[in-house]
Amino acid sequence: MTALHDHSTRPLIDIRSDTVTKPTAAMRRAMADADVGDDVLDGDPTTRRLESMVAERLGKEQALFFPTGTMANQAAIWLHTRPGTEIFVDAESHIVHWEMAGASALAGVQLYPVRGATRVMRATDLAAAFRPFSAQGMDASLVCYENTHNGAGGVVSSLETSRAMCDVSRAAGLPVHLDGARLWNAAAATATALADFASCADTVMVSFSKGLGAPVGAALVGSAEHIARAYKIRKRLGGGMRQSGVLAAAAIYGLEHHLVRLADDHEAARYLAKAIDGVGGATVVQPDTNIVMLDLPSPCADAIVARAHALGVRVSAWTPSRIRAVTHLDAPMELIVATAPFLVQAIAESLS
Ligand SMILES: *Cc1c(COP(=O)(O)O)cnc(C)c1O
After folding, report:
1. Is residue 315 part of a domain?
2. Distance (Å) from CA 169 to ligand 1 centroid
3. pTM of the predicted structure, to 2 decimals
4. Which of 249, 300, 311, 323 could join 34 in a cystine, given CB atoms 3.0 to 4.6 angstroms apart?
5. Which CATH number characterizes residue 280's domain?
């Protein structure tokens, strides 16, 4: 990477995603010091502690630690559905775009992608998508929504909006799974309790490897009955995780030390959005949380990514005409302030 830089003294920043954070020295110490056991035999004490903390914060009976959020989402889909049914899911969601058609391959369900009339799927979009009962129509088995919504630019669904989606789904007899990989950000941005958001779904996935800065990990929360089934599905998807407390310790560290600083990421995202909005005719999607999307007047995202990289700023191409930047733990405000001019330069040069 260094070889690409024009000046070796220039500050570097990687804001392609909030998954690029590296565990801090203190987080690594917590991992090294974790009390562990064989989670498949007698249970791992640190993993149990993490699961209790998460279940309590989200106001659900139980939680189960997963190596990834993708696997937790897939376990949730599997446990709620039956093969040969359909599930309603936001057309631009992680489940549709990034989970390798797992819902079809593993749970045997069909995805019904619902496109939101505004930026993300809402209750009215769902209500319009539900099929009226008929002997010829197929059965639905689940609704999934995402909060915050990644692809739309970290968009928050407020508590009221979330409740409306949940209400319309339950009225149709459908359980609800919330992909809350960044639910922490939604809660921080709106001063809403995590448990209130979680009450809008039967199961919730939360991620530890995004804003909380853990190396990997997610949890699925829900009723004791749902989590008992998720445990078996997790095993079928890949097995048990023996001394998983080493990883759970990182997640606990993130919950105890990094959750409180998410508002800083949101502030940094607002700063960055303001700095790049309008450059070369590009338009920023005003960020609700830590994700900044920039829509380009021409499909030159790759050129901007390459030029920004050469200038020391790593961003990603979300589509040929959309750039994505995400603020995080390792991209503090000072660094954003110091490097934003180089991103501005890369955009201006590529669009001129
Ligand atoms: C990152 C992410 C996931 C998947 O989490 P992994 O731990 O990377 O598998 C799922 N949903 C959303 C919205 C995400 O941003």
Report:
1. yes
2. 23
3. 0.96
4. 249
5. 3.90.1150.10
Ligand 1: residues with CB < 6 A are 68-70, 73, 94, 146, 150, 179, 181, 207, 209, 218
Asked if pLDDT for residue 51 goes beyond 50, the answer is yes
Residue 112's SS3 state is: strand
**Residue 274 structure tokens:** 């303001």
How many CB atoms within 10 Å of residue 111?
Answer: 19
Neighbours of 153 (CB within 10 A): 27
- Answer whether residue 5 shows pLDDT above 60: no
Say if residue 75 is in the same domain as residue 216. Answer: yes
Ligand 1: distance of its center to the CA of 150 in Å? 9
Q: Which of 257, 282, 299 is the last residue of a domain?
A: 257
Nearest residue CA, atom 3 of ligand 1? 69
Kindly report the protein residue whose alpha carbon is nearest to atom 5 of ligand 1: 69
* CA torsion, ordered 31, 36, 38, 44, to nearest 10 deg: -100
Q: What is the pLDDT of residues 213-258, one digit of tens each?
A: 999 999 999 999 999 999 999 999 998 899 999 999 999 999 999 9
